[in-house]
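Let's study a protein:

___
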Amino acid sequence: MLSEKQVDAVEETAAELQRRRDNRPAANAGERPNAKSGEPSQRDKDRLWAKKNLRFKGGEPCLDCANALRIFERHSSFTGRFRYNDTLNKVMDKGAVMLDWRVSEVVCVIQERFLPEISVNAVERALIVHANHVIQKK
């Protein structure tokens, strides 16, 4: 029989694995177009979204702060999530302080889904700019 601590550890691990499954790219998640409904995979949806919303040069998306900012401003996954807190001098994600690991997680999502080779610094700068834009609009 499992102890209470062991049960808690298993539940935390399961929650973490589910969170990771939800954020991994479509190719790794085993998502393929639904043959019956003809629905495209998440990866195909992300590629289509990127073609419509990001800047490209020579057939490749520009790996800069401006494209990362477009993702934060235009993609539904990020709408309404981030705000800058002047008191803390930190970006907030749905009210939670964006600690380094949270920022890294957002960078990973951007790299996996839209801009695989974009630098961490470019995404971090875009995140700060976006979060400041949000509070200025209020």
About this structure: The helical segments are 4-23, 26-29, 42-53, 65-74, 100-113, 120-137.
